[in-house]
Amino acid sequence: MAAETPCSVLYNDIRSFGGLKHLEIARMLINGNSYLGSTLLEKCSSNRSYLTRYIVHRKPDQCAPAIYSDFTVTTLNLSAAICSKLGGGESAYRAIAEHYRGPAANEMMSALASYKLDSRLYANALNRIDNFDGNAVREKHALPDALCGNGALADPVQGVATVERFLRQQRRASTLAPPKLPSDVAL
After folding, report:
1. Is-contact 75 148, C-beta < 8 A?
2. What is the DSSP code (8-state) at residue 88?
3. What angle separates helix 103-114 from helix 89-101, to the nearest 10 degrees?
4. Given pLDDT bands bounded at 50, 70 and 90, which one contains residue 148?
5. Do 94 and 83 touch, CB atoms closer than 8 A?
6. Among residues 120, 125, 123, 19, which one has the least CA distance to residue 71?
7. pLDDT, average across residues 153-180
8. Contact 142/170 with Cβ under 8 angstroms?
9. Given 68, 116, 121, 170, which is the most exposed site by the fewest CB atoms within 10 A?
10. pLDDT mean over 181-185
11. Of 25-34, 100-109, 139-148, 157-166, which gets the smallest average pLDDT?
12. How far apart are CA 26 and CA 30, in angstroms?
């Protein structure tokens, strides 16, 4: 049996850990507004073997980055869906952070290495996320973002760029937040 592809690690992990079906994941990740993306989603909806063969088990040299929506947005939706399936709340977000830093990360690094892709870049991206200023559990959305970027694109360089973009957006959003007014502070 051939080694799991980075893309199949992504889809199978979200299915087993997050309880989402492959088609649900594809609908979140693939840009349905582009011609190619909408055509793919239409084929996937009507033909399950097409979804499995051409999306879930796609090899790194078959990836088409143009079909995907912006991972910095879609992974927030994926995280919310997974959180909901896990029962919600801080414990669900903590479970997501632990899973995508542990077992899912190990599987992705193994899949990247089996295709002679640099898994160290993925490991470095995870370390960047761990050292990010916003250390709240809910702000660890970049962990699934790293998995999505590396799994769907099967390109650690682009995956790391996705994580960097996400962290910049998070940092910018936190600096743009309005300061707390005295009336907002509990006495």
Report:
1. yes
2. S
3. 30
4. confident
5. no
6. 125
7. 69
8. yes
9. 116
10. 46
11. 139-148
12. 6
Q: What's the predicted TM-score (pTM) here?
A: 0.80
Q: Residue 14: is its pLDDT beyond 60?
A: yes
Burial class, 156, CB count within 10 angstroms (exposed 0-12 / middle 13-18 / buried 19+): buried
At residue 68, what are phi and psi to the nearest 5 degrees?
-90, 150
Contact 149, 71 (CB under 8 A): yes
Residue 116, judged by CB atoms within 10 A of its CB (0-12, 13-18, 19+), counts as exposed
Question: Which residues does 113 contact at the CB level (< 8 Å), separation at least 6?
Answer: 119
Q: Which residues pair with 30 in a beta bridge?
A: 68
Let me know: does 26 contact 48? Beta carbons within 8 Å: no
* Residue given tokens 């349905």 in the structure block: 32
59 touches 117 (CB < 8 A) = no
